[in-house]
Amino acid sequence: ASLQRFVAMTVMFHQMGMRVQTFFPKISFGLFGYRMDRTHSIMRIATTASPVSGADVRERMEELRLILKIERSVQLISRTWKKWRLEKKNSVVG
Predict the structure, then answer these.
(1) CB of 2 within 8 A of CB of 9?
(2) Could you count the other beta carbons within 10 Å of the beta carbon of residue 74?
(3) 47 contacts 32 by C-beta, under 8 angstroms
């Protein structure tokens, strides 16, 4: 993904530079010019790195999935136990 972002930004800035290079000579009748290959650009693209690695996210997702599965199992067992106890109580009384 980072390589794709880099390539996309490089292409975008190159296209912007080409537009500027062709724009100035047109509006100034050749008086002003801009050569993209002769300029030095120190513009840097600010990108924020992810503070968490993908492996950590994957492990955390698996952990949360397991916790959710355990919670659902506990709820199912609890409901089944209550239902069984209520049926047993009704069968003894009735």
Answers:
(1) no
(2) 10
(3) no
Residue 27: predicted pLDDT:
82
pLDDT of residue 40: 61
Q: Are 18 and 39 in contact (CB under 8 A)?
A: no
The residues, any chain, with a CB within 8 Å of residue 34's CB and separated by 6 or more, are: 20, 21, 24, 25
pLDDT at position 79 is: 96
Average pLDDT, integer, range 4-11:
90
Closest to 11 measured CA to CA, from 3, 59, 48, 80: 3
Prediction pTM value: 0.42
Cα gap 78→64, rounded to integer Å: 21
Both tokens of 21, joined, read 């290079």
